[in-house]
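Board notes (copied after class):
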Amino acid sequence: MIPVRLHLAYKNIKRLRDIVSILVKHGFYPVLESMHLTGLISMPRRIIGKKMGVGKEALGAAIRLRLALEELGPTFVKFGQILSTRPDVISEEFITELLKLQDEVPPFPFEDVLDTVEKEFKKPAREIFPSIEKIPVAAASIAQVHRATTASGSEVMIKVQRPGIEEIINTDLAILKYLARLMAKYMPEARIHDPAGMVEEFSRVIRKEMDFTLEASYMEKFRANFAHEKRIEIPGVYWEYTRKRLLTMDRVSGIKIDNVSRLREEGIDTKKLASLLVEIFFTQVFDYGLFHGDLHAGNIFVINQEKIALLDFGIVGRMEDELKGHVAEMFLDILNEDFKRLTNLYLKMGVLPEDIDEEAFSRDYYDLAVHYLGRPLSHIRIGDLFMDHIRLISRYNIKIPRDILLFSKCILELEGLARHLYPDADLIKECEPFAAKAVRRRLLPEAVISEGISTVNEYRDLVENMPGYTRKILKKILSDNLAIEFIHRGLEDLVGEMDRSSNRLTFAIIMAAMVIGSSLVIASEAGPSVMGYPALGIVGFMIAAILGLGLAFQILRSGKF
């Protein structure tokens, strides 16, 4: 086991122990044992953890993971939500369960709200917001929202960051990075998914989400994109009242989009509403290449039959023109049941490994496509199709852009909401006009010319830089500075185990030598004595006993006993 005192994550050893204890409580002892982390908990808890209760086992691993993440707090809830976008890493059962993760928590005290306002604006809170409702509209793990009134009399909503959340997240991120390294070290099957890279990506996402000025900028961008669209409302930002930890926006009221009974009581046609929701999402993707990345019901409110409001732009996806074109072609190929084009398209979208068996991939992909597309469109769940696509691709180590993963998760959420409103909702048919328009746009003369110019410029840069690259290589060769690095994959674990084993063996030999030496001293009755025995021999035995107990304790702590 890596020494606890030497690692950054252990600056908060209590938090790490809490994490391990909670995971053991929810039945993940075998995973922690394989990561050499069980030494952090007491022996009784370790023994109990090996025998998970029948009730826990009956819940299933996916449910237990969700419950553990919820108990671990905001960082882990967010990590689970991000993990739900990775069908290449976890199965459908886990994705379905992680999509249920809620970061609704008890609100923090109103005094902390006033304190945050004063710290951000360096003025008394009442000078900035003469009126703030004490009871929040919503309370989440990172922030909570209150209705308020500005000094100019505008009725607004303020999103206030939870006090101390940044320190909590920084601590948890350090521990997550450490856990990712342990997973890569002790669980070879996890290396293909790059745990450290996943945590690093999550770190970037959550740090961006904590900067409310970035969220405000995205809100303004979406408002500009839909400035002429009367069917969608995006709250305006009050920049003079917005800071990194406090976001002030227009007040929005409406009905949560999943409250079907209330919607019907208000006379709203849920079939038309489902169609409007799908249309707005595909407009974001194919017209603007910028889409809302967190489409759960709490972020979508229905104002009336013809208008919905989008909230919380902490997670946003982007698609460049080339990627938009690929996604559009994908939908059209699904409609046309063109399996060969679908296969080639996914090969183009991903970063292919050098050793990929394209023929085997094409065969497997064809089987997958037939499995879904050999039935009526109304019986196809496009979200499941996307998820299975990505799982297949991950088996061949094809790298898919992060925004495609986020888009797939949004499709899954969108389809769920649309079919909740109207069970016969068909995303594939709804998408067809948008996809066809996006493909036609790529074929316009100006688009073709622009793409051609871009390609020519890339080749020009390559030709211009080639002499310089060649000169550098030749210079290294002539000066004997050309180095070739060999990477021995998998040997690090063997070297580490050999190092630990040799250290323990050396320790045991020294201990045995002290026992033998002390025995000889006692047998010879040399030197001063204590209670009739040579003092030097007694001291030697005591030291050997201490070393023996220490070695036994280390073996027990490692869990290998």
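Comment from the instructor: Residues 1-9 have pLDDT under 50 and may be disordered. The first strand starts at residue 131 and ends at 132.
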